[in-house]
Amino acid sequence: MIPYQWNVLNDIAGIKIERERNDISIPNEKSHAIENFKIAAGKVNGTHYGWTFQDSDVYKWLEAVAYSLREKMDPGIEQKALEVIELIEEAQEPDGYLDTFYSILGLEWQYKRLAGSHELYCMGHFIEAAVAYYDSMENEKVLNIAKKCADNIDANFGPEEGKIHGYDGHEEIEIGLLRLYHVTKEERYLRLAKYFLMERGKHPNFFKDQATCYKGPNALNGIENMPDTYFQNHAPISEQKTAEGHAVRLVYLCTALADLAATTQDNEIYEICKTLWKNIINKRMYITGGIGSTVLGESFTLDYDLPNDTMYCETCAAIGLIFFAKQMLRIEPKAEYAQVMERALYNCALAGMALDGKHFFYVNPLEVNPEKSKKDPTKSHVKPVRPSWLGCACCPPNLARLIASLDEYVYTVSDDRILINQYIGSESVLKTKDGEVHISQNTEFPWDEAIDITIKNTSKSTIKLGMRVPDWAGNFNISIGDRSLNENITYGYFYVEVACDTTISLHISFTMPLIRNYCNTNVSENIGKVAISRGPFVYCLEGIDNGKNLASIILPEESGLTYEFEDKLLNGVGVIIADGKSVDSSSDSELYSRKRPLIKEHKLKFIPYYAWANRGENEMRVWINEG
Amino acid sequence: MIPYQWNVLNDIAGIKIERERNDISIPNEKSHAIENFKIAAGKVNGTHYGWTFQDSDVYKWLEAVAYSLREKMDPGIEQKALEVIELIEEAQEPDGYLDTFYSILGLEWQYKRLAGSHELYCMGHFIEAAVAYYDSMENEKVLNIAKKCADNIDANFGPEEGKIHGYDGHEEIEIGLLRLYHVTKEERYLRLAKYFLMERGKHPNFFKDQATCYKGPNALNGIENMPDTYFQNHAPISEQKTAEGHAVRLVYLCTALADLAATTQDNEIYEICKTLWKNIINKRMYITGGIGSTVLGESFTLDYDLPNDTMYCETCAAIGLIFFAKQMLRIEPKAEYAQVMERALYNCALAGMALDGKHFFYVNPLEVNPEKSKKDPTKSHVKPVRPSWLGCACCPPNLARLIASLDEYVYTVSDDRILINQYIGSESVLKTKDGEVHISQNTEFPWDEAIDITIKNTSKSTIKLGMRVPDWAGNFNISIGDRSLNENITYGYFYVEVACDTTISLHISFTMPLIRNYCNTNVSENIGKVAISRGPFVYCLEGIDNGKNLASIILPEESGLTYEFEDKLLNGVGVIIADGKSVDSSSDSELYSRKRPLIKEHKLKFIPYYAWANRGENEMRVWINEG
Q1: CB A590 to CB B294 under 8 A?
Q2: Nearest-by-Cβ selection for B588 from A516, A520, A552
Q3: What are the chain B neighbours of A310 within 8 Å (beta carbons)?
Q4: I need a labelling partner for B484 at 20 to 30 A (CA). Which of A322, B137, B239, B332 fits?
């Protein structure tokens, strides 16, 4: 992904950029993201092109590079990263301000249209990238750019007189500042992050007032008229009891809140996080881990409103939910958080890219009919095939940085324990408070039902190792040699102690039953329907395997399900076969009749949801009629 | 309705006007429609307020008054009509041009922004009103205003050099010109109507070119960017094989085409009409007779795309479909046309107003959850309760003129026959080519299963009287005294001859079975569902009778249905009772679980669809799970 995305950001990939929906205002001629930096740096002439937040595509790419170099050095990629850092430094204003849009179009407008300007959002992404790059490569220069940037924000925002008492329209700077605090231990950054979080929603008119006063350049004119909920600006955070508004904004907000709660051990803030978490997980999340029920505002709507064919389920929102879960695991070692992380990762987020890593979904539907996507304008955002790149390209580099840092989600390392949240074949060296722990996972999971884990504790303390017992697993067992360990499960983690200077080898086994999932009956769309899953994967039907009109398919209660692995299909996937039925369309004549349609036999083949839309344009459906 | 609407148009009704959807550009402070005429007439100072097509509200009201005075004289109402006609005459420009928007805001822009200006649309509505008023009241003055108006259009549009080779963005003038031709026999009006119809779609760039050249006032800036299909401007009419674009525009176009085909006995044009008719009826019409599957462009989408909860089904579109059917009946006496007329009239159109005649729906859903209408922005147009008036008020006066002229739909009078399309208790005097025929229908239909008809033929010819055999009827029988008549049915009409100077009394009887309707299996939304009907009425469930979460309700195949009339309910309606079931929500806990929900008994009560939303805000649903 990283070389491909580099070419796209430099406008040399030779691809067609598609609008994410029918909206002629979406810029889709080119990325221009690197070119914007060159212009802002005064190296070439030209003007800004793209969204106000185009810079963030570059920052997310740089962050992905940072993680990838940590895993495996690549001098060619490193060279490109160093060039980008150089370019960013040149584009940065002397006072630390960093935003190519306003540097090019008018610095006098900086911080004056925060509803849509994305200035702090972009700087937040830069700070995240800088911290990651510093972590991996010990590059002081990039960290200094980030500190200069944060210092500029600190000089402009805060409770003090003369500073702006406001916040960005899109949360993200809060995450960046907290990460910067973690490496620098500079209290100002922590304080500023907390200020932004706690100030939010206290000035609902802030965005509208700014828009009234200042008429400077803004690619998002009119965004101020979005409802306050869109920006999580309708009430102070402590009074927000439901997940409202733009889904990515909300989960980025929650990620920062949870980081703050973990960092400052603030139980009140953790309670806010838990309230929002529960609302999402229990009432507003798709079975794929997707969130955001409507394209209008890319937003949450209301409890149990989960339409399958008009939803948004933005890839970035699923990624943000994974970020949120990761921070929650830092506070409490509960498997619930890792389960949601798994759901979003293996399903909605992974579906966000094609098997080739070069095509991406912005929107991840649970039901698609390609003809409707083309001809029903309310479904123009529901694409049946992944484009090479998108007019708003937030998702592709977000996926790149997630995948490249997967180790941070597989494990949660704290002072007193290591949690294994996800089972993924890997070799890792984890830093603990007083040394290192080497963990290798040897497994064909998520297809196979066994994992061999070797833990070598070279730290100075005994390690409490918590291994997640997946909620979907049967007969979960951990053994050493021939000896099964006694169950020692707390909050969904099976604990084993590993003394210092010890190496142990564990064998984990379990079954992955083929599960029929039912939805809460308050979700009107899914009544009478069933969704199939195995292990972490939600399954779906695709037209190429099951014919047209998937709505007509029935998976009767009594139909047996059979699992088999097909190594030639979709780079190797486990499929599920069933003796289903379907409504017989052969007697269709009129639009309405008194004749109840007949039912016929219909062999069904389910594939994992993440793998759909890799064999051309066709129908897809997750929730299937059961009766 | 007429006095109420008069007060609204004069801004003295003391009501709140609601936007038809969440769109702050919709003018909803007042109607101002009469005031616009006063300003254009130079009687008061001020500026135009409302849509570019606000004038048409007044014209449709005047047309309704014309029909109502024909049925029953009312000097008070007549006086108001005469005042309005006087005002219109004063607002008309010396050259015959009539449009308050451009008279007030700049006559130099006339006919220069036809995509959205609605100038010809408004004049078409005025001509319709004028012809109706002339028909009823022999008022020459109003007819002269209309002729002057048509002459101005004729002077500006046509194939001749120097004239505009174009047409209005919203079809309607074609209907008006044809009606004007019918009363005046002036060939120019027929020719001009035909010109507009046949020219359409030959200049797809016409609207965009005008918008590029002329930047004058236009309340609908940007409408030129709608797809060509929106205006039925994507291809010449003869090449249009499917119903595309804005649903009201399409059926108004078809109404004029069918009138032209009937008037000129042009079989080629009738074939165009039949192609579009069949596409609508067989693939794009809701069971309620509603049309228009999406709010975006208030448009058709594609074959078999009939979502129940996001559709448009505009009241005006159902009315336009009734207009279309009426014209088709003039060409061929086929019951198919009258059946669709009945479906749209008794269901979608009638649902467009409350039982009090003072509250109106723009959008007529088949499934509503009030919470979703409030909190899901993609459903803001799906109102659960009828507003007093709407920002775009096309529907209320359209209903008024339809209801006031129902006789023209009940009967189709041609040279060789009279068709009884609808059975409605009534007394009518029908003018035939050589005299009059008096028909009285004595019946409690649509509730009861019998009609007594007396026909007195005072014309000079024997009349072929065709009585429609409804498609839903059982044991249809016509008798004179004790003697059943032999079936003599052609294209769904049972024919009886009535000699001149003869009076006969017929007794029609039939049964109205409670019908389970199934939808074509290509309509994904309705697979596994059933809709109940009796006679012309489609039935629905409302929350007030059946509890919350109507999606959870099941009407099993084996459940019996019982009909009973409740004279205290909803001004008296027949209800249908069934022993249904529902999904038991008492065990709901998580959002997703492995537990198949249980089913419990649930007594169901269906009411006719037209009567829904008259008992406060609640859920409603037409298509019910059967299994």
Answers
A1: no
A2: A520
A3: 310, 378
A4: B332
In B, which residues are within 8 Å of A302 by CB distance?
A: 371-372, 375-376
User: What pLDDT score does A487 carry?
Assistant: 92
* CB contact (8 A) between residue A594 and residue B517: yes
Two structure tokens written together for A502: 């010890």
- Active site residues per annotation of B: 298, 394
My answer on whether omega of the bond before A446 falls inside 30° of 0, hence cis, is: yes
C-alpha A146/C-alpha B304 separation (Å) is 55
What is the reported pLDDT for B219?
A: 63
Interchain pair B552, A521: CB under 8 A? yes
More confident residue, B218 or A48: A48
Nearest by CB to residue B515, choosing from A301, A516, A594, is A594
Distance of CA A163 to the CA centre of its chain: 33
Q: How many CB pairs under 8 A join A and B?
A: 153
Gap from A519 CA to chain B (nearest CA, Å) = 5
Q: Which long-range contacts (CB under 8 A, 24 or more apart) does A8-13 make?
A: A8/A388, A8/A389, A8/A393, A8/A396, A9/A33, A9/A34, A9/A57, A9/A58, A9/A61, A10/A34, A10/A35, A11/A35, A13/A388, A13/A389
SS (H, E, C) B7-37: HHHCCCCCCCCECCCCCCCCCCCCCCHHHHH
Q: Which amino acid is at B465?
A: L
Beta bridge partner(s), residue B378:
none
Q: Model pTM?
A: 0.96
A221 pLDDT band (50/70/90 cuts)? confident
User: Which residues in chain A are contacts of B522 at CB distance < 8 A?
Assistant: 549, 585, 588
Average pLDDT (A594-621) is 97
Confidence band for B214, pLDDT divided at 50, 70 and 90: confident
pLDDT on residue A403: 97
The DSSP letter of residue B597 is P
For A519, which residue in chain B has the nearest alpha carbon?
B592
From the CA of B334, how many Å to the nearest CA of chain A?
17
| Tokens (6 digits) for B11 | 């801004």
> Tell me: the pLDDT tens digits for A23-72?
888 999 999 999 999 999 999 999 999 999 999 999 999 999 999 999 99
pLDDT at A219: 64
The active-site residue out of A172, A298, A367, A619 is A298
Residue B286 — φ and ψ, nearest 5°? -70, 160
**Contact B594/A283, CB-based, under 8 Å?**
no
Tell me, what's the ipTM? 0.95
Q: Cα(B525)–Cα(B286) distance, rounded to whole angstroms? A: 12
Tell me the sheet residues that pair with A530. A624
Residue A503 has pLDDT above 70, yes or no: yes
- How distant is the Cα of A622 from the closest Cα of chain B, in angstroms? 13
The secondary structure of A455-483 as a DSSP string is EEE-SSS-EEEEEE--TT-EEEEEEETTE
d(CA B469, CA B488): 11
A516 vs B594: CB contact, 8 Å cut-off?
yes
Mean pLDDT of B197-217: 90
B516 and A596 within 8 Å at the Cβ level: the answer is yes
Lowest mean pLDDT among A269-273, B59-63, B223-227, B513-517: B223-227
Give the count of alpha carbons within 13 A of B617, CB side only.
Answer: 11
For residue A487, how far is the Cα from the chain centroid? Answer: 33
What strands, in cross-sheet order, belong to the sheet with A489-490?
A411-413, A417-420, A463-468, A493-498, A489-490
Classify each residue of A493-521 as buried b or exposed e, where b means 16 or more C-beta atoms within 10 Å of its C-beta: bbbbebeeeeeeebbbbbebbbbbbbbbb
For residue A523, list chain B residues with Cβ-Cβ distance below 8 A: 591
pLDDT above 90 for A411: yes
CB contacts of A525 in chain B (<8 Å) are 551
* Closest chain A CA to residue B304: A591
